[in-house]
Amino acid sequence: MTTKPTGGSSGTTNITPDLIPEATVYSLSVASSVVNGVSYPTALTMGISCDALPHYIDIDAGRNKTQLKADLGIPDNREASDAYHVEVTLDGSAPVYTTELAFGQTKPLSLDIPGVLRVRISIATTTKGCGNKENYIALGNPILIQ
């Protein structure tokens, strides 16, 4: 198993729940997570309900960051049938990033965000008939770069 180094070097800020002023996910935590066989010592893990409605987190970029970077994925301890639609907007704009995410995939997220106050990451399950199980998505090593 590969381990991805964490952020936190000079000029970077790890994204933690205290930088998220608003969210509709039912759980939000920073912990280690394994996604697609890669260990992320610092992952922001979000639990969402099974309905098809998008759930979101707003990240406070404070208008003084230039980039957001993370690896999107579904933790390896989840169901192999899990799938999600992910969109990112900046200060209420039209989506600047859209992807479909399936189990066993990792998608890099790298956005230029100069002058942006809020980055919204919206997540909706596309899994059919997911019942009452818990659904999770992880942002591996999410950082804001000054």
Helix tally equals 0
Mean pLDDT: 89
Note the main sheet: 7 strands, mixed
The arrangement of helices and strands along the chain is EEEEEEEEEEEE
Gap between N and C termini: 31 Å
Report what the structure shows.
This protein has strands at residues 2-3, 12-14, 22-23, 27-35, 38-48, 55-60, 67-73, 83-90, 97-102, 106-112, 118-125, 135-145. A hairpin with a 2-residue loop joins strand 4 (27-35) and strand 5 (38-48). Helix content is 0%, strand content 55%. The relative contact order is 0.31. The chain contains no helices and twelve strands. It is an all-beta fold and 146 residues long. Strands 1, 2, 4, 5, 7, 10 and 12 form a seven-stranded mixed sheet that branches.
Features of this protein?
7-stranded mixed β-sheet, 5-stranded antiparallel β-sheet, mainly beta, 146 residues
Short structural summary:
The protein is mainly β.
List the helices and strands and how they pair.
Layout: E1 2-3, E2 12-14, E3 22-23, E4 27-35, E5 38-48, E6 55-60, E7 67-73, E8 83-90, E9 97-102, E10 106-112, E11 118-125, E12 135-145
Parallel strand pairs: 1-5
Antiparallel strand pairs: 2-12, 3-6, 4-5, 5-12, 6-11, 7-10, 7-12, 8-9, 8-11
